[in-house]
Design a protein that fits this description.
With 103 residues, the chain is mainly α. The protein has a single domain, classed as Tetratricopeptide repeat domain (Serine Threonine Protein Phosphatase 5, Tetratricopeptide repeat, Alpha Horseshoe). Helices cover 82% and strands 0% of the residues. It contains 6 helices and no strands. Helix 1 runs antiparallel to helix 2 and helix 4 runs parallel beside helix 6. The radius of gyration is 14 Å and the shape is globular.
C-alpha cells in the first residue's frame, strides 16, 4: 500500500502523467483491485492513445476477468497504435497475446 500512496501523491502534483497512472494501475493489479486498474488504463488510453504499454495490460486484465471480447478489441487497438508508432516489439507482443486468446 505504501507504493500506491506514494504514486497517488505524485499524481496529485501531475494528474495527467501517463507513466505514473500506468505504474499505479499495475500496483492496483498486484493488490487485487482490478476495477481501479481498469479505470486508470482506460483513462490513459482515452487521453493518450499512443501510450502503447497500457493496451497489453488492460487487455490482459479483461482477459483474466472473463471479458474476452473486450480484451480482443483492446489488443486490436493496441496493435494498430503500435503499428502506427513503428513499435514492432509491442506489436508482436500484442499480436501473440491476441492470437493466444483467439486460437
Amino acid at each position: 500500500m505504501e507504493r500506491i500512496e506514494k504514486l497517488k501523491e505524485f499524481l496529485r502534483a501531475n494528474a495527467a502523467d501517463s507513466f505514473l497512472q500506468h505504474a499505479l494501475a499495475l500496483e492496483y493489479i498486484k493488490a487485487g483491485d482490478d476495477s481501479s486498474a481498469r479505470i486508470l488504463f482506460e483513462e490513459i488510453l482515452t487521453r493518450d492513445p499512443d501510450y502503447i504499454g497500457s493496451y497489453y495490460h488492460l487487455a490482459k486484465l479483461l482477459e483474466r476477468t472473463g471479458e474476452q471480447e473486450a480484451a480482443l478489441r483492446w489488443y486490436e487497438k493496441g496493435m494498430a497504435a503500435a503499428k502506427k508508432a513503428g513499435d514492432q516489439h509491442a506489436y508482436n507482443e500484442l499480436q501473440m497475446a491476441y492470437e493466444e486468446l483467439v486460437y
